[in-house]
Amino acid sequence: MSTIEIDDLTKAYGKKRVVDGLSFTVRPGSVTGFLGPNGAGKSTTLRMALGLTRPDRGTARIQGRSYHEHAEPLRVVGALLDARWAHPKRSARAHLTWLAHSNRIDTGRVDEVLARVGLTEVAEQRVGGFSLGMSQRLGLAGALLGDPGILILDEPANGLDPEGIAWMRGLLRQLAAEGRSVLVSSHLLAEMAQLADEVVVIGRGRLIKQCSIAELTTVDASAAGEVLVRGPEPGRLRELLTHAGATVTDGVPGPDPSAPPLLVTGLSCEDIGRAVAGAGLVLFELTPRRGTVEDAYLQLTGSSVEYRGSVRPAEERAV
Ligand SMILES: Nc1ncnc2c1ncn2[C@@H]1O[C@H](COP(=O)(O)OP(=O)(O)OP(=O)(O)O)[C@@H](O)[C@H]1O
Q1: Buried residues in 288-301 as b, exposed as e (16+ CB within 10 A)
Q2: Where do the ABC transporter domain residues begin and end (predicted)?
């Protein structure tokens, strides 16, 4: 059974549909990464799943019901949307105790979740003085308070240092291993590659792809299928490979101008190796360019990026 079911979810602000007929599911015992460029509609989707924003159309079901249909939602789903929402004058412990009280959760849980997120030592400090990373941990403690089977987290690694990110990864993996469903939005693609089992990629409010991380990396490898070759006779190499049916383009020049890189598509490494050997040419390099999660993501979302900087990462990273 899927624990989070998003079905045809649609939301417009003014004339702009920020979430547009979106459907996907999240299964138990897994971490699902929710990816998309800035403004793609991730936060709006998560807010609709948590009953904070009303959809124009479609449904978001948590364990088969909408958020508001659960009598004690915090026991079903824990959420971290905005790390800074706790009252700044309350201590971490007072904040969690208040949260437990108002949701009829045993206050004995407070110490457990403080320990789980590593905040025991600062439990009596006012949260107004917390760093963003500490606030993220406190937000996560609040999400875990009701021991829910489902977690919905918006950019939980935001503000964490590398050690904090590694800690968060370990904790989320552990929570999934305990059988929980974890839906986590992030911009940190390399991090997602290490953390998530599945990804849901959206752009302009629409689903682009839901697949496993392993599948995501093959998106790029199979689509591009590029091989980098370098040799001391680039002119002859280009002519030979073009004649053999390949498309050959220039790579970004490297340190050796006498053997510039060529990017070859349409022939496998084996084909290139045989053709080059048959012609008696020398090669310095023959490298298949494998897809990374980031390459695949950029390829998938390229046309749905709304806010573009002046540097185009895919081109900048060529070679
Ligand atoms: N309350 C609102 N009123 C008007 N427009 C809104 C509102 N909330 C979100 N939007 C717009 O909806 C679009 C999607 O925003 P959303 O925050 O869901 O995207 P996102 O994928 O989470 O982006 P980011 O990665 O930058 O956080 C954006 O263009 C945003 O400006």
Answers
A1: ebebbbbbbbbebb
A2: 4-229
- The answer, as to whether pTM is greater than 0.80, is no
Taking the chain (319 residues) in consecutive chunks of 10 residues, what is each chunk's mean pLDDT? Answer: 86 94 94 90 95 95 93 91 78 92 90 93 87 89 94 88 88 93 84 88 90 73 72 96 93 87 90 95 88 70 59 38
95 ligand 1 Cβ < 6 A:
no
Residue ID of nearest Cα to ligand 1 atom 8: 44
Which residues contact residue 163 at a Cβ distance below 8 angstroms, ignoring those fewer than 6 apart? none
CA gap 310, 171 in Å, rounded: 36
Query: Which SS3 state, helix, strand or coil, does residue 222 take?
Result: helix
Range of the structural domain that residue 48 is part of? 4-217
137 and 58 in a single domain? The answer is yes
CA of 202 to the centre of ligand 1 (A): 13
Which amino acid residue places its CA nearest to atom 5 of ligand 1?
Answer: 13
The CATH number for 278's domain is 3.30.70
